[in-house]
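USER:
I would value a second opinion on how I read folds in token form. Give me a protein, with the fold worked out from its sequence. Write it directly below this note and I will take it from there.

ASSISTANT:
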Amino acid sequence: MTKTISRREFLKGSAAGVVGVALSSFIGGGVTALASDDIPADVIPESTVTLNVYDQLANYSGEQIGWFGQIMLEKFNVKLNIIDDQDGVYESRMESGDLGDIVIWGSDGDEYLEAVNQGLLFDWEDEDLLSEYGPYILEHMEPALEKNRNLSGGTIYGYGFDVAVDADDTQDAMYTWDLRWDLYAQLGYPEINNLDDLLEVLIQMKELCPTDDNGNATYAMSIFPDWDGDMVMYVKSLATAYYGYDEFGIGLYDPENGVYHNALEEDGPYLTTLRFYNKLYQNGLLNPDSMTQTYDNACEDYQNGGAFFNIFNFLGESMYNTDAHMADKEDGSMGGALYPRVPNEARPIIYGQTIYGGNRIWSIGENTEYPELCMAILNWLSTPEGRLTFEYGPQDVCWYYDEEGYLYLTELGASCKADVNTEMSDGYSGTFDDGSFKMNNTTWALDTINLDSPVGETYNYQKWASQQTEASTLVEADWREWSGCTTFDAYVKTSDYMLSPGTDYSTSAKSDELQTTWSQVTNCIKNGSWNAIYADSDEAFDEIVAQMTTDAYDYGFDECIEFQENEATLRHEAEERALAGE
């Protein structure tokens, strides 16, 4: 790393005065917004600095390249070295006492609190760091900062992701149940009431389309273990999509009544959806490489038409729905697309927006030599320009405001949204995917109001006025006619969805003894779940689940349940306060 100005020199320089923070009035709302170009001049190093970003959310390791890397050089003269959270990385960095320059947490639970207790995170109010170099965050995200202060024992070390302007709004649906619509139409739109019906439809889809774009075998789903936490991610996520119960420790939480369903509850949500994945496997509908492949491998399968179904919009339609796939065919038939088809009995969760932010925390390492530079970067990412840039690409290259303040994607920007492998232009190198935002966290929620928008638009391009157009392909027109909706979010919200209100709840710290037990139990459940997915018969599945259950309780699962049931009580109380407007 090429060092330029030391931390002490930075702090001395700040006393001489930071370049004035120009504020412009937000039209109509009386809200002030930081002009995005007003980055304090004294924070920019003369020589390029490499900042280490320890990122528990990253699917990538190494230097941030491509268009976003170029933007970081242009604006801040920095390179970002992303350090992902592989096995042992957290422990080794904690032992060294150096977490990194920017530190991004997958949750605000035990590991974050351990770093706080060991003094390994930078106090954002030390030497007026936040007020001098994070003014936009300070002005517009105060509830999120106060949540972090309360969580962290009275000191602000960061703030959580997906911050909202208005607590009464809901997020867009994430669990959209994307299904290959062209194949579904060919089958005559059969009724899908439940998971059993879905299984039968997927079996028939494979018969219609046995190979993908490259001639490889197709499957209903292609999944991966990269994002497994306390449970297998895809299993617990299907339970969230179907029952509306939110992931909560080693189990799922019902936001309607505050009931906690532990992962090993007999006939409970987790084991029910675990059995569904085993049924996919037994019917040749699950990519057999799922247990060992990576996120990137699974994405390639969806991009190539190798899988017909995904519960997530960002791993379904956003991967497959390119212009080439969706285009009308020469014989006059519809092209291919993944579009939402929620089972009639499903209750997908819809998250309420929260002014307090979520549990994935942006923070700064205590031992960084460049706290002001790190804060200035986080501050810019928290401006509307920064939020739109890391979502859609460079301003005026991929997106822009018109004279009235409405947002538009450029032709390049629209191509990048349709196909992440689109080559960049205007001096930016590589594909859009090459340069995509590798930190993989958010600042503002996608569906909250953009404070720079004079017309009150959000950061979600699908909701922009400029995007409300007529269907451009037969497959899109067919889905719109069937659903009666023009957007995926509107359709999912016609279902009997489950609302999870945004609150200031944060997970309580666990004792060292419980953390050890927790780790043993979660490893047991994850390994047992994957083995159960690959069971050759129902009998073998039952035997594996029974053994997993016995082993988990032997490790101390009872203690984990007791802890989490108390957490459910605390969360439910926070939800009741939020719904009451307190």
User: Anything to note?
Assistant: The longest strand covers residues 49-55. The chain is about 40% helix and 10% strand. Residues 1-36 have pLDDT under 50 and may be disordered.
